[in-house]
Design brief:
The chain has helices at residues 37-40, 59-64, 168-172, 196-199, 213-219, 229-235, and strands at residues 2-4, 25-32, 41-43, 54-56, 68-71, 74-78, 92-94, 96-99, 106-114, 121-128, 138-141, 145-149, 153-157, 176-178, 187-190, 204-211, 244-254. The strands form three sheets. Strands 2, 5, 6, 9, 12, 13, 14, 15 and 17 form a nine-stranded antiparallel beta sheet that branches. It has a six-stranded antiparallel beta sheet with strand order 1-11-10-16-8-3. A two-stranded parallel ribbon has the order 4-7. The chain is mostly beta strands. Mean pLDDT is 88; it is low at 1-20. The chain contains six helices and 17 strands. The protein starts with a strand and ends with a strand. Strand 5 and strand 6 (74-78) form a beta hairpin.
Length: 257
């Protein structure tokens, strides 16, 4: 998980006694499960800003090619895993979606059953101000977790799916929650060296799956994967059978005025 603007926040590892976490009560404002993803998100068929070997497709194409599909309690987002690519043609078809709603002070709960896997994959769940990136702030997130953003701090908790310590309100998706009883977060970014209200605007949630690109492509040679990143993506479609998100739910909670 990364918070940007670049290195404005030191990561603090704090003993339980040194900081009081939580205390605010939040109420569920977005409950995104299964088919609701199609109502809460827009599909962005744009050039990949991270220069990956992907071709982001529109909603119609993603449904027709089975790159996104739903059941009552599941949303799948994946990359194509059937096509050998022309080295001079577009990248592997994939999907990038952005929430229609924006958020400031909130808790976001991402219930993710499966993260994309495979050589060259670069999955992302993140928040930013889409109209002012990166100056409107950015919070980069991977895997299942809970993130609380306030004017005073950004905190992140992580639990494995079957961890007995998962708070009941998170596990059951209850209507309200308060982080006060959750203990010390895995990451804590206080509003000390950076004014969150100045540098973090209203954020959209973005979920995307790119391949290679500015980060994954640059570290590919250190990964133990064969060939080059672009060549592997072009010629090994079956290797991306596991390159998919399986998302049970996204639930967002906001304080009442």
């Amino acid at each position: 998980m990364k918070v940007s603007r670049s290195a404005l926040f030191p990561l603090l590892v704090l003993p339980t006694s040194s900081v009081a976490f939580g205390g605010k009560t939040y109420f569920r404002s977005s409950d995104i499960v299964g088919p609701a993803f199609y109502n809460h998100f827009n599909w962005e068929a744009i050039d990949d800003p991270t220069h990956g070997r992907v071709n982001y497709v529109d909603e119609y194409t993603s449904i027709r090619q089975n790159l996104t599909y739903v059941s009552p309690d599941t949303f799948i987002l994946r990359a194509d895993h059937k096509t050998v690519l022309d080295m001079s043609g577009p990248g592997r078809n994939s999907v990038r979606i952005i929430s229609k709603k924006t958020y400031t002070t909130h808790i976001a709960v991402f219930d993710v059953r499966h993260m994309p896997q495979g050589c060259g994959t670069w999955p992302a769940i993140w928040e930013t101000q889409a109209t002012n990136w990166p100056d409107g702030g950015e919070i980069d997130i991977v895997e299942a977790f809970v993130m609380e953003r306030t004017e005073q701090h950004i905190s992140v908790w992580f639990w494995a799916r079957h961890d007995a310590r998962v708070p009941e309100e998170v596990k059951e998706g209850l209507f309200s929650m308060n982080t006060k009883t959750w203990g010390v977060p895995a990451a804590y970014f206080p509003n000390t060296n950076c004014d969150l209200t100045e540098y973090f605007g209203e954020h959209n949630i973005i979920i995307n799956l790119t391949l290679c690109g500015d980060w994954a492509g640059n570290v590919y040679s250190q990964s133990g994967c064969p060939s080059t990143c672009v060549d592997f993506v072009n010629n090994n479609p079956a290797s991306f059978a596991g390159a998919y998100f399986d998302i049970a739910a996204i639930r967002v909670y906001e304080p009442r005025a």
